[in-house]
Structures are given as structure tokens and as C-alpha cells.
């Protein structure tokens, strides 16, 4: 047990987590890797091995893509009515809701996520998103064209084909369904490469999809490593569309592989360094709470984490004091404990990366106000950390740390903070805290980011498109925009003879 500012005590029970699925899921069956290799997935609470997972590589990806190709080219899934596909997806969502507890446990032991949050939000949210797209499956249609000549023209919206999804480890369930839900609703067949750190829930979802009636080959899950399994998906000549969420550096490699293979279309959701901008007129307690929420949710392992906090000079000193008090009260410990606010980083590599950035912040001359240390005698726990005296060109203000590290900075005018907020290669999200609607409107139109949250943060919704500007990537998840990227438009034209109308 690790804790910031005191112990969490022993008054909770750690459930026994059963891992039921550890093999690859290809063409409707759980199978060993062609190589026979396995890899360890570890519990970040302790560093101990949870299970050995079949390690997919190029040979397994080839089999998965072949199954998906057959399911798309000759199977029933893309040929069903949208209504029929929607019914199966609703059944899939029913099964998720029946297994909320077990799925939340898997993401807790695999990713260090708070069990209570997974049970209340992540897993039900996945079912909700799946139902959103199940409802959209029978509403995909083209348009009748008003041609300038004696022709009848119309468009069809058709599924793009076989889709490769490479998903990250920070939200194993949420990101799985961000990608899979609209692709399935559109009528595509998919191959999912989950992160090697967090394969457990993805394999369970494959089991539930089969149980729901998804035809064999429509959903395939191939755990493995990025340079082998991930690279094979990105470069595969029979994958028609690629969706990747992860680092900007790997995003470049994915685009290169897509370009050098079959020029498959690509959508990328990459890094972020999102600003939260607090104006003098804000309620300071609300603003501190929101900034804490933005920076430390999911131990900072979230692409839209609000880790650059700009506070107007009139309330800056009071804000720093209150933010430090809130951070010190945050309880870090076992994510199964309902009193815990923050669990462990996902693995040893990420843990060491965050601690390295904390050291860099000190060396660059930022002032460490609170936190900054590892805690606990086992596992990958780090205290919520706040730096002040941060300059815009410091690494802790520019680089995506992906950990519980907040950089606090002061500003005078709206014009100044617009420049500061946009002084980043990323453009995923931003938060604005003000009671002035004119300030809110000006800021929301001036910041170059895909999501602007005014007096709130992490305001995700199935109907709200999400995706980045600049080096945060391109292509939207959620909303009808998220469905469109798995469809392509076909134009059909035929001559009209002796018609009285054009």
C-alpha cells in the first residue's frame, strides 16, 4: 500500500481476479501464436506477473487479416441490413453490462486503473458507446444528386473494408470501443492489436462478441508488441484502413508504413499537452478542483490530461496554495481500495519515465511545490506533483509526460495566454475557467485544439466528436464523424431518357 499524506489503511478487500482468456482470437477461435511464444502481462500494483499471453507477430496478423478479408468479402456482416447489425451490437452491449465487475477488475490489475471508476464509468461507458453506433447502423445512407445534365445520380455509403486498430494501454476498454464500435456498425471487419501492457480485457471482449452472434472473422484480436504485431498490421497490403492511438513518434512510423504499403487511409490520435486556463473571475475552489481533475485523472495517463495550468495573476498565489493542499490530500494506493484517488503507473518503464521528467523539471529551474517522489515499497506509485516557475520552453511544459505532473504558470492578459496556450506542437484539448461568456467565446475560437471544455473537463460524450489538431493527429472518434471514417462514398450515375425533369 502506498499513500500520499498518510496511509489508506486495510479496510478493503482485494478481489480474486480470474484471467480466462490468454490466447489470440482469430476467425472466431482462441488460438496459440504460430510461433508458440508467450509474453508476461504484469500487475502494476506489485510488478508481479498476472498471466502469460500468446504473443502474436506477422504470421498471426496474416492469419487474422485473412480471416477478416474473407468475412468482409464473402461473409454476411457487411451484407446484413443495418438493423440486423444493430441488433447484434446491442446484444454485445448487453453482455458487457452483465460482466461489468469482471471487466473492471481486469483493467484494474492490468492497467492500474481505479476499480470503482472502471465499474461505474469505463465499462458502462463502453456499452453506451456501442449502443450509440448500434443505433446508427441502420441510418447510413447516401444522397440523391441534382445533376446538371440528363443523368440520374446518387451516392452510396459503403464500409471501407478490413480495418486495423492499434490501441493504447491507458484506457484499454474505452479505446477498444472508440475504434471497434463505429467500424462494426459500418459493416467493416476488424483486426485489433491491443497494447502489450493491457491485453486482458480486449480478449474478453472478443469472447463476448462471439457470444453475441458476431460472425467469425469480423472481430480478431492479436496481442503482441508494436515493432512486430503492430508493424505488421500497419504495413499489411490487405488492410484497407488503419486507426492508431498512441505516441506521436509511433504515429509517424504508422503513417510511413501505410504509405509504403498499399496507401491505406490512416487516422491518428496522438499526444497532447493540453492547457487549462483559469481567469481571475473564476471561483477558485472550483478551478482548483477542476485543474486537479484535469491533471491527475487516471494518474495522468490520459492523452488530454490538462497538465499546463495557466492562472491569471490576480488569483495565482491563492491558486498555487490551494492546489498544493488538494494534491497533498490525494491518496495514492491500491486501485481496488475505494478510498484511493490514484493508482500506480501502468508499468516500470512509464514509472521511470515520469520520475525522469520530474528530475528534468528540477534541473531546468522549475520549483517543486509538492510531490515529486515515488511512494510505497512495491509497485509503480508516484505522488501527485506540482511545479511552479515553469517557463514555456521547459521540457515539462512541452513534452507529454503521461504521469501525475502539473506545471503551473502565471499570465496577465487574454492575448498573452492565447499565445502561450498555442505554443505547443500538440492540439488535442483545452480547458477554460471563467464566468465571462465573452472571454469563453474568444478563447474557444482562438485555441487550436480539437476539444474545448468551458468550466468543465473530460466532457466526453458519444455524440461529441473527439480528435486533435496539429501533431495530435487527425480523424475523429465518437459522434457521426467517428462513423464516417469507416465508410467510403461511391457515386452511381445512369442516363435519363425522355424525362420531363432534370
UniProtKB/TrEMBL annotation:
Q: Which reaction does it catalyse?
A: octanal + NADP(+) + H2O = octanoate + NADPH + 2 H(+)
Q: Does the keyword Glycoprotein apply?
A: no
Q: Which molecular-function annotations from GO does this UniProt entry contain?
A: aldehyde dehydrogenase [NAD(P)+] activity
Q: Which residues form the active site?
A: 269
Per the database record, which ranges form the Aldehyde dehydrogenase domain?
31-492
- The yes or no answer to whether the keyword Cell inner membrane is present is no
Q: Which domain of life is it from?
A: Eukaryota
Question: Sorted alphabetically, which keywords does the UniProt record give?
Answer: NAD, Oxidoreductase
Its family remark reads: Belongs to the aldehyde dehydrogenase family.
Recorded hits in PANTHER family, A to Z, give: ALDEHYDE DEHYDROGENASE-RELATED
* Assembly and interaction partners: Homotetramer.
Q: What is this protein called?
A: Aldehyde dehydrogenase 1
Amino acid at each position: 500500500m502506498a499513500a500520499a499524506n498518510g496511509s489508506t489503511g486495510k479496510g478493503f478487500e482485494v478481489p480474486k481476479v480470474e484471467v480466462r482468456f490468454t490466447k489470440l482470437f482469430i476467425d472466431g477461435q482462441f488460438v496459440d501464436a504460430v510461433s508458440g511464444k508467450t509474453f508476461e502481462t504484469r500487475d502494476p500494483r506489485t510488478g508481479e506477473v498476472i498471466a502469460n499471453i500468446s504473443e502474436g507477430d506477422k504470421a498471426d496478423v496474416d492469419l487474422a487479416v485473412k480471416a477478416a478479408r474473407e468475412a468482409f468479402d464473402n461473409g454476411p456482416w457487411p451484407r446484413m441490413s443495418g438493423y440486423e447489425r444493430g441488433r447484434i451490437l446491442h446484444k454485445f452491449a448487453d453482455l458487457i453490462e452483465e460482466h461489468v465487475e469482471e471487466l473492471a477488475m481486469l483493467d484494474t490489475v492490468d492497467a492500474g486503473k481505479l476499480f470503482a471508476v472502471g465499474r461505474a464509468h469505463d465499462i458502462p461507458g463502453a456499452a453506451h458507446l456501442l449502443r450509440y453506433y448500434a443505433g446508427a447502423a441502420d441510418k447510413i445512407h447516401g444522397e440523391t444528386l441534382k445533376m446538371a445534365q440528363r443523368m440520374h445520380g446518387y451516392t452510396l455509403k459503403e464500409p471501407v473494408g478490413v480495418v486495423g486498430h492499434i490501441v493504447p494501454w491507458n484506457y484499454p476498454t474505452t479505446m477498444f470501443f472508440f475504434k471497434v464500435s463505429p467500424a462494426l456498425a459500418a459493416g467493416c471487419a476488424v483486426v485489433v492489436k491491443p497494447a502489450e501492457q493491457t491485453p486482458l480485457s480486449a480478449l474478453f471482449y472478443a469472447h463476448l462478441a462471439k457470444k453475441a452472434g458476431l460472425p467469425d472473422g469480423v472481430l480478431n484480436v492479436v496481442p503482441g508488441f508494436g515493432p512486430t504485431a503492430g508493424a505488421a498490421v500497419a504495413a499489411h497490403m490487405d488492410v484497407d484502413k488503419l486507426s492508431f492511438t498512441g505516441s506521436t513518434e509511433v504515429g509517424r512510423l504508422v503513417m510511413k508504413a501505410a504509405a509504403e504499403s498499399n496507401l491505406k487511409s490512416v487516422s491518428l490520435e496522438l499526444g497532447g499537452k493540453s492547457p487549462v486556463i483559469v481567469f481571475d473571475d473564476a471561483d477558485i475552489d472550483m478551478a482548483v478542483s477542476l485543474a486537479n481533475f484535469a491533471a491527475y485523472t487516471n494518474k495522468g495517463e490520459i492523452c488530454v490530461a490538462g497538465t499546463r495550468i495557466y492562472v491569471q495573476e490576480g488569483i495565482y498565489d491563492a491558486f498555487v496554495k490551494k492546489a498544493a493542499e488538494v494534491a497533498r490530500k490525494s491518496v495514492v494506493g491500491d486501485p481496488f481500495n475505494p478510498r484511493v484517488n490514484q493508482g500506480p503507473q501502468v508499468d516500470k518503464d512509464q514509472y521511470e519515465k515520469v520520475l525522469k521528467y520530474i528530475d528534468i523539471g528540477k534541473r531546468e529551474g522549475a520549483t517543486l511545490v509538492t510531490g515529486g517522489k515515488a511512494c510505497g515499497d512495491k509497485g509503480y506509485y508516484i505522488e501527485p506533483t506540482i511545479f511552479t516557475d515553469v517557463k514555456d520552453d521547459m521540457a515539462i511544459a512541452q513534452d507529454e509526460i503521461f504521469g501525475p505532473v502539473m506545471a503551473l504558470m502565471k499570465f496577465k492578459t487574454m492575448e498573452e495566454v492565447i499565445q502561450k496556450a498555442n505554443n505547443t506542437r500538440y492540439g488535442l484539448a483545452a480547458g477554460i475557467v471563467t464566468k465571462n461568456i465573452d472571454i469563453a467565446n474568444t478563447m474557444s475560437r482562438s485555441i487550436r485544439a480539437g476539444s474545448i471544455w468551458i468550466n468543465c473537463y473530460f466532457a466526453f460524450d458519444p455524440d461529441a466528436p473527439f480528435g486533435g489538431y496539429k501533431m495530435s493527429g487527425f480523424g475523429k472518434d465518437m459522434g457521426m464523424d467517428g462513423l464516417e471514417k469507416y465508410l467510403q462514398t461511391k457515386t452511381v450515375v445512369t442516363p435519363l431518357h425522355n424525362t420531363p425533369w432534370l
